[in-house]
Design a protein that fits this description.
CATH superfamily of the largest domain: Thiamin pyrophosphokinase, catalytic domain
Mean pLDDT: 94
Distance between the termini: 24 Å
Helix content: 10-25%
Number of strands: 14
Number of domains: 2
Structural class: alpha/beta
Oligomer: single chain
Length: 206
């Protein structure tokens, strides 16, 4: 049974069919406050909560969703973190993040780095208009397609990685730089990812 909660961040609103389908099929949508502005023009999507400090909301969005606003003025967390913790408090732990990239590169990198932290508390992934991003900290087999571009990035330089089902061998590779294990290609219908000493972000292009 689908119990997916979408967290819609205030980056670029998705246009690709895959993230849009996820948005339509989600059980519920939780918006970072600025992301609610995008939903003004998409009435088919109805959020259950608008989470953040409120400084990014348009007047139209502020009035339309005044009853479901959850205001947090904490300066130690960004709106994506606030929305994530709101979901955890509600017991919603099957999460897909949309709209977390684009607009500003610093926000994009910050949001990507949060995935590893989030994965300690929930089943979480991120969809962009280009790819699926999955944080992996234990051995896992992920579905893929032949010739699918795949990359592996770890924020922690102590992470080591082994991957089966890719064209360029990855065997106990130390991910000391973000570029170390990027630009690989899946050879079949699955990839087996085996990280050690930390979390790897797996990028699978559409």
């Amino acid at each position: 049974m689908n119990n997916t909660t979408i967290i819609l961040a205030n980056g670029l609103f998705p246009t690709h069919a895959i993230p849009l389908r996820a948005l339509r099929e989600a059980v519920r949508v939780v918006c970072c406050d600025g992301a609610a502005n995008n939903l003004v023009d998409h009435p088919e999507f109805s959020p259950v909560a608008i989470v953040g400090d409120g400084d990014s909301l348009s007047e139209v969005a502020r009035e339309r969703w005044s009853a479901i606003r959850v205001t947090s003025t904490c300066q130690e967390t960004n709106d994506l973190e606030k929305a994530f913790h709101y979901c955890i408090e509600k017991g919603w732990k099957d999460l897909v993040i949309l709209g977390a990239t684009g607009k500003r590169e610093d926000h994009t990198l910050g949001n990507l780095s949060l995935l590893a932290d989030f994965s300690r508390e929930a089943k979480v992934s991120m969809l962009t208009d280009e790819c699926l991003i999955t944080p992996v900290s234990t051995e896992v087999t992920l579905p893929s397609t032949p010739q699918q571009p795949v990359s592996f990035i770890a924020c922690d330089p102590h992470v080591r990685l082994t991957v089966e089902g890719v064209h360029y061998p990855v065997r106990d590779l130390a991910l000391t730089r973000w570029a170390t294990a990027t630009l690989n290609v899946a050879t079949g219908t699955f990839i087996r990812v085996v990280p050690s000493k930390g979390t790897v972000l797996v990028f699978q292009a559409f």
